[in-house]
Amino acid sequence: MYENETFEVIQARKMDFIKAMDGGSELDTREGSMIHFATAGNSAELAQMYIKLDVTLNETFADTASRDNLIKRTAETGMTPDPATYAVLKGVFTPSSLEMIIGTRFSGNGVNYAITEKISDGVYRLQCESLGVVGNQYLGDLIPVLYVPGLETCKLTEVLIPGEDEQATESIRTEYFDSFDDKAYGGNVADYTKEINDLDGVGGVKIYPVWNGAGTVKAVIINSLFGQPAAELIAAVQEAVDPAAYSGQGYGIAPIDHVVTIAGVTTTAVNIATTITYQSGYTWADIQSYVNAAIDAYFTELNQTWQSTKTLTVNNGLIVRISQIETRLLNITGVLDITGTTLNGTASNLTLGVDNIAVRGTTSG
Q1: Which domain holds residue 146?
Q2: Tens of pLDDT along 10-24?
């Protein structure tokens, strides 16, 4: 707004004003003159003031505010950023007859974990001691921080409830503006969507009202890694929304008389076959790991859009597109060209079920 208020513009305006006040006399206002020197310092300060005014003005509005001021703006409507959370994982210990002590700590890949609960003989729930997604990034062997008599092996095998970083700035901004379009109250669809999305480990949700008669609600969730949620996450969300022991009685997020069923997305394995023309010196063995990584990245990106495929009148499934896969594979070093790509044996895009997400099956080139 104030980008035109530069030092040169302000200074010229002052010189014009001085000349006008003096009746148009021949006062020396050139650069280096006494009058120019006397006013230049103030003009420079004014130019800086206009720059700061522009910054202040941008910080006033939610669409241009930086994170700290955006949080202050959203707080006026009762919104706060989702905090970072701890990942919860499944650990398998041998011998299975060994009783592990709650709180026993382990280390793997530079991150520490602590036992929080026994699931079954030899199987325990562990919580990462570091906040955020770092707790989701390692599965494999663990080393006890302190010696555990009788322990033979210990291994992380599954992420039960993914850890999440603090809510990103642009996510806060989007949520703030969305709140003006969809009024969340009293157990309407917007209310369930907001409340369930805010639960730890949930990356998205679709709400199906009156899915099994009056007063029934079905919520299908995807985890915050945009994959199929573990049974433990589904159970935790069920407990938070409508505990099974008190179904329909309003002891969770759901209002009284709402019987809510929580389910998870299911996966569809996508087998990908293609004919690759290789650059000189490359074979399938050289690039397969890069191909798999590129496909996994595409499916993660695709699965992030799963929640947005539901509208008031249409419930669409995700579409796995051959063009998107080929574009990504063409960027891999060693690939010169690609033809004849098929998905699950068919040379066309693959439309998934409404509550399905894509996972990589077999790949061949």
Answers
A1: 86-161
A2: 777 877 777 676 665
